[in-house]
Write a structure and sequence with these properties.
Blueprint: E1 6-7, E2 29-31, E3 59-63, H1 70-86, E4 89-93, H2 101-113, E5 118-121, H3 130-138, E6 143-146, E7 158-160, H4 163-177, E8 182-188, H5 194-210, E9 214-221, H6 226-239, E10 243-248, H7 251-263, E11 272-276, H8 280-288, E12 293-297, H9 299-314, E13 322-324, E14 327-331, H10 338-341
Parallel strand pairs: 1-4, 3-4, 3-5, 5-6, 6-7, 7-13, 8-9, 8-10, 10-11, 11-12
Antiparallel strand pairs: 2-14, 12-14
């Protein structure tokens, strides 16, 4: 079986871990891939076992939403792992920031021009990507998606977290933590791409439907940038001195909220903070008591499922419309559990 060849097309220098731009029911575990296997749950198993390349090494181009969050580095790691297992070659590319839509589209365009056997794509802008995916279709290049999709029916499948359900789970825990009453606010990372919209709406809709004594007083967008998100959070706290909770919808948003309360000199637990994704800064904030908890995804599972689905698409296999890779509530009570540790990334 051939080793994976991973070419970071334009971001080799950006692989250093940095936070400069860092994004159901009442039980703690919200959605878990029912077909997951192995330590940490291999979400790729949701679509069955792939046969891998039979006549030479398949070339699969993956275009992500960024590199600046540790989340994407974990997705890449899972993709590399699955590619090595299946004996295929992948490239993994993404813009420096999740606001750089034009840069990402150029990366997608370049991927199409080099005619790989398949493309995996995570859309920053669900509308702007449509013409390029139509070009891929005309070139007979199968497309699978991950994390966030383009508004077409060209893709064969998408591997992602159910972000609406994950946002609702965040709302359930926020409500429990603030005794089902009071004012909360949201620092979101995007009002364009589907993950930002769904994590926001899942949270807000759950609060409005099930918790009449909780009021969402403000929603602002920090583009997943922890500096901008910190400024937004400080302004929200200043404008609402009786604010009881803040929800950050991705890694950068949540870290910005944590930094804001630290900069304001607030005591751990004085404001209830619920985050999303993982990363060392959020893990440390939970352990110190500054952050109450977070929703973590399975980014390595997303990477594995994307490569597995790309191989299946190349070989003409039928794929499910969506592969749900799961999401999980994490707080001080379970952060060291083996199953949760498998979902966390530093």
């Amino acid at each position: 079986m051939k080793n994976t060849r991973v070419a970071l097309l334009s971001m080799a220098a950006a692989t250093a871990l940095t936070l400069s731009a860092c994004g159901g029911g009442g039980s703690d575990e919200l959605v878990e891939d029912p077909a997951a296997e192995g330590e940490g749950g291999d979400a790729a198993a949701a679509s069955g076992e792939s046969g891998g390349a039979q006549d030479g090494e398949y070339d699969i181009a993956l275009v992500s939403k960024g590199f600046q969050h540790q989340f994407w580095q974990a997705v890449q790691s899972g993709a590399e792992e699955k590619a090595e297992e299946l004996g295929v070659s992948i490239t993994f590319d993404g813009p420096a920031s999740e606001t750089e839509v034009d840069a990402q589209l150029q990366m997608l365009r370049s991927a199409i021009e080099r005619q790989p056997d398949a493309i995996g794509y995570a859309a920053l802008d669900p509308e702007a990507c449509i013409p390029l995916l139509e070009q891929a279709q005309e070139a007979e290049i199968p497309v699978v998606e991950f994390d966030a999709g383009c508004n077409t029916d060209i893709e064969k499948t998408i591997a992602k977290t159910d972000s609406l359900a994950a946002g609702a789970l965040a709302a359930e825990h926020m409500a429990e933590l603030i005794d089902n009453e009071g004012k909360v606010a949201v620092v979101a990372h995007s009002q364009i791409n589907s993950t930002g919209v769904e994590r926001r709406d899942g949270f807000v809709n759950k609060i409005e439907e099930d918790y009449p004594d909780i009021e969402v007083v403000d929603i602002q967008y920090g583009d997943g940038d922890h500096l901008k998100s910190a400024d937004i959070a400080k302004a929200m706290i200043s404008a609402n001195p009786d604010l009881k909770g803040l929800y950050g919808t991705n890694e950068g948003s949540a870290i910005g909220v944590v930094n804001a309360v630290n900069e304001l000199g607030m005591q751990p637990g004085e404001l209830t903070i619920v985050g999303f994704d993982s990363g060392q800064a959020q893990i440390d904030a939970i352990k110190s008591g500054v952050m109450a908890g977070l929703i973590t995804q399975d980014p390595q599972g997303i990477g594995r499922a994307t490569v597995d689905s790309a191989v299946k698409a190349i070989e003409g296999e039928e794929l499910p419309e969506e592969i749900d890779t799961g999401s999980y509530w994490v707080d001080q009570s379970n952060i060291d559990d083996e199953d949760i540790q498998a979902m966390l990334y530093e």
